[in-house]
Design brief:
Shape: elongated
Radius of gyration: 24 Å
Number of domains: 2
Number of helices: 12
CATH topology of the largest domain: TIM Barrel
Strand order of the largest sheet: 14-15-13-12-11-10-9-17-16
Structural class: alpha/beta
CATH superfamily of the largest domain: Glycoside hydrolase/deacetylase
CATH class of the largest domain: Alpha Beta
Strand content: 15-25%
Length: 429
C-alpha cells in the first residue's frame, strides 16, 4: 500500500506503523512526491489536507505539528461509532482516523495545561464517553472494511483474543512479616477499638494456627491451573515504609520464597512504589532488589496507585530498563483509557519519537466495579469484557491478593470465578 503525504513526520510514521503493521498486517510505504503517487498503478491512499483524485483521508494538521497545541477535536458520531477529527468532506471515512488514533494512543489530552489531576497526581478524565468503548479498535475495523471495499484482494492478518490476569501485591501478608513494633501496635489497635475478632485472627496467624488472611496465592494457582492461565504479579517492595507504601517487609523470607516460586510459572513485575514516583534512583533500586528472587528479567511495571505523569513516568521506566508497563487504566471505573484493548508502543510527545516501551492497557480493576453482589458486579463489567472479546483484543484485569480473602468487602472471589468461566465459554465467539 502506497500512502501519499505532503510531508513525513515521526507522528505519522508512528500511527501508520500501528494501524497498518501491528493491527492490519498490510505492508505500506510513504511517498511525499505527488507526481509519483498519481502515476503509481498499485494500491494507494492519499493522506492530505487538500482533495485529490484518489482514495483519500482528509488530514488534520496535528500529525505535522510539534508539541501540544490546543485545538478542536471535532467529536461526532458516524453510525454507532464516535469519531474524532470529523469533517464534512467526501473522503474514505468522514474523519481523520490517523489523527484520532494518535490523539488517543499518545494520551494527547493528558499533556494539555487544563488537564485535571486528583490529590494523588492522577489524571481525571473530562469526558468519560471517550473511554466507554475501544474506539481506536473500532476505527481500525472501519478502515479495514473500507479498504477491502476499494481493494478486495488485500489480505489482513487475523487477530486473537487474549486474557491476561494481573495482580498487585501491595501487602503480601496481613499479619505475617511485620516487625515486632508493628505487631505490638496492631494488637493494641485491635484491643482499643474492641475488634476482638481481628485480635484473635492476628494471634492465630502468628501462632501458625490459621492461614494469613492475605495469603490467597494457592487459591489463585488452583484457578490458573484449572483455566490454563499465565498471570503477571506486581510486587510492591519499597525499602522505606510510608503511609502509602505499606508492603510486607522485603527481608521477610517467606515473601522472598513466594516471589521465587511464582516466577517459575508466571511473570513478575515491579509495583513501583509511590515513593519512587518521581525518583528514578529509588525505582532502580527496587528493580534490582526484586530481580534477586526471580529467574527472569524484571522488565514489567505498574505504578502504585496508578500514579503517572506524562511523559516523565514513562521516561523514568524506560531509563530503568522497563519495556512493558501495565498502568494505563482508570482507578474508579472500567474502560479504555487509551481507546484500545490492544498493546501499543508509547509515543513521547516531548521528544517526538516512538519509544520501546510497550503499553498494556488495563481494562479494569476490582476497585472500579459497581454493585453489591456477584450478579450486579458482573453486569457492570460485562460490556467491557464483551467489547474486548468481540474486537479480539487483550483483556488485562487487575485484582489484589487480599480481595480473595476473608477481609474482602465484596465477594470478589465468586465474581472472579464467574468471570473466568464466562471468558472460557465466550472467548472463541
Amino acid at each position: 500500500m502506497l500512502i501519499y503525504s505532503p510531508r513525513h513526520s515521526a507522528r505519522l510514521q508512528y500511527v501508520l506503523q500501528y494501524v497498518f503493521e501491528e493491527q492490519l498486517g498490510i505492508p505500506y510505504q510513504v511517498c511525499t512526491q505527488r507526481e509519483y503517487f498519481e502515476q503509481y498503478q498499485g494500491d494507494k491512499i492519499a493522506y492530505s489536507p487538500t482533495p485529490c483524485h484518489s482514495v483519500q483521508i482528509i488530514a488534520h494538521s496535528v500529525l505535522w505539528e510539534r508539541g501540544v497545541q490546543k485545538h478542536d477535536i471535532h467529536k461526532k458520531y458516524i453510525g454507532n461509532n464516535m469519531v474524532l477529527y470529523g469533517h464534512e468532506h467526501n473522503d474514505l471515512l468522514g474523519f481523520d482516523i490517523f489523527a484520532a488514533v494518535f490523539y488517543c494512543l499518545s494520551r494527547y489530552e493528558e499533556y494539555l495545561p487544563n488537564a485535571k489531576k486528583d490529590p494523588w497526581g492522577r489524571w481525571i478524565p473530562a469526558d468519560t464517553s471517550l473511554y466507554e468503548k475501544a474506539w481506536v479498535d473500532r476505527w481500525v475495523l472501519l478502515l479495514r472494511q473500507a479498504l477491502l471495499m476499494h481493494f478486495p484482494h488485500l489480505t489482513c492478518k487475523e487477530k486473537h483474543f487474549v486474557f491476561l490476569p494481573t495482580y498487585d501485591i501491595d501487602i503480601a501478608y496481613c499479619y505475617a512479616g511485620k516487625t515486632r513494633m508493628l505487631t505490638a501496635a496492631g494488637y493494641a489497635k485491635h484491643l482499643l477499638k474492641g475488634k476482638f475478632g481481628l485480635l484473635r485472627d492476628r494471634y492465630f496467624t502468628l501462632s501458625h494456627k490459621m492461614k494469613d488472611p492475605y495469603d490467597t496465592f494457592e487459591y489463585l494457582e488452583q484457578l490458573h491451573n484449572q483455566y490454563q492461565l499465565t498471570a503477571c504479579y506486581f510486587f510492591l517492595v519499597a525499602q522505606k515504609r510510608t503511609s502509602i507504601d505499606k508492603n510486607t517487609h522485603r527481608d521477610y523470607v517467606p515473601m522472598q520464597k513466594l516471589i521465587s516460586h511464582l516466577a517459575t510459572k508466571h511473570s513478575i513485575g515491579l509495583h513501583a512504589s509511590y515513593h519512587s514516583f518521581k525518583q528514578a534512583g529509588i525505582q532502580n533500586e527496587e528493580i534490582t532488589w526484586l530481580q534477586q528472587y526471580t529467574s527472569q528479567a524484571v522488565n514489567s511495571s505498574r505504578q502504585h496507585y496508578l500514579c503517572m505523569a506524562m511523559p516523565g513516568s514513562y521516561q523514568q521506566l524506560t531509563a530503568n530498563g522497563i519495556c512493558r508497563d501495565f498502568s494505563m487504566g482508570m482507578v474508579h471505573s472500567w474502560g479504555f483509557r487509551a481507546g484500545t484493548c490492544n498493546t501499543f508502543l508509547f509515543y513521547d510527545i516531548y521528544t517526538e519519537h516512538t519509544t520501546n516501551l510497550r503499553i498494556y492497557p488495563l481494562i479494569g480493576m476490582e476497585n472500579g466495579i459497581k454493585g453489591n453482589n456477584i450478579n450486579e458486579m458482573m453486569q457492570h463489567i460485562l460490556p467491557y469484557i464483551n467489547e474486548t472479546i468481540q474486537l479480539q483484543g487483550t483483556l488485562t484485569t487487575l485484582f489484589h491478593n487480599q480481595s480473595f480473602g476473608i477481609y474482602a468487602d465484596k465477594n470478589y472471589a465468586g465474581l472472579y470465578e464467574l468471570l473466568l468461566k464466562y471468558i472460557t465459554d465466550n472467548k472463541s465467539c
